[in-house]
Amino acid sequence: MKKLFKRIVVAAVTAGVLCSVPLMAACDSAHPEALIKISYDGEIYELNYKLYRNMYPQTVKHFIELADAGFYNNTIIHSYEASYFYGGGYAYNAEGYESSYEVDYEEGELAMRDYFENNSKESEYYDLAMNGVLTPSVYSDYIDGHYVTPALPTVIGEVGDTHKILNGALTGGFGALRMYYSSKDLEADAVVYLDKDNNEDGAILDNYLEHSATSMFSIQTSSSSGSTSYCIFGQLIDTQPLTDLTEAISEGSSIAVSDVPIDQYDVMIDYTNYDDFTVRDIPIIVLSVEITKR
After folding, report:
1. For residues 34 and 207, what is the distance between their CA atoms, to the nearest angstrom?
2. In angstroms, what CA-CA distances link 17 with 11, 12, 27, 31, 212?
3. Residue 39 to residues 156, 173, 235, 281: CA-CA distances in angstroms?
4. Model pLDDT for residues 69-124, shown as the tens digit of each residue
5. Do 136 and 278 have their domain in common?
6. How far is CA 154 from CA 13, 125, 142, 265, in A?
7. Are residues 210 and 161 in the same domain?
8. Domain that holds residue 5
9. Both 205 and 257 in a single domain?
10. Distance between CA atoms of 38 and 41, rounded to whole angstroms?
11. What are the tens digits of pLDDT across the range 177-198?
12. Does 16 share its domain with 150?
């Protein structure tokens, strides 16, 4: 009986510790899970991910909020390279647009560039921010003697100098789920709270332009450790579906699209307003992103 009582006490204390972790309200798990369904050439590939909220609470929270809002549903993989691909920034045959992926692909580079411009999800992302769907950023600007938090949330709070992760880091590898830390077109003196150590005010202030991320996600298809410019916040539970998908995609052809305008509110490349994409002849469609464990 005493042993049973001790076990109950230990379990209760453990639960209390987990529930006290910042940003893990209501006893949310340390490792939520997400299901990303991708369609390619008539086949559906289901990628099951383990997310690391214990390491990257803000990034995971942001990703879950976008998934819950349906932001990633029916989007295309707009840039496919040998070692990674990007998704989430452009709708696939979005209702209300005249542009069609299949038609524009046949028309060539110029038409595909127009497709990206017409099917950008910039306005939807901005609307989610303005309507309070996304958790506000800790970015603050010093205005009239006090800090003011604007209504444009981004991913924040996990990186230090030169993008070093402050509270642990995943090492990438095949299937790593990541977001790119990019610059934003904001005031040079904009700051972000990074850490509470060794600062009399309870926070270290650093340049916001070095510590922001896009709403787009990237999936690594190489086995390398990845770049420190990325926050890797999820890993595949089973790599076989992604292996099957990349093998199928490799049999197709591609078209290079240069000088694609980058969203004003969701910049994904450092210090530029344009980027070059490589798209496949058959659209790679993100059918849905669903949070299956919270």
Report:
1. 31
2. 10, 9, 10, 15, 29
3. 31, 23, 20, 14
4. 999 999 999 999 889 999 998 999 867 677 889 999 999 999 999 999 899 888 88
5. yes
6. 34, 10, 18, 10
7. yes
8. 1-28
9. yes
10. 10
11. 998 765 544 444 444 444 444 4
12. no
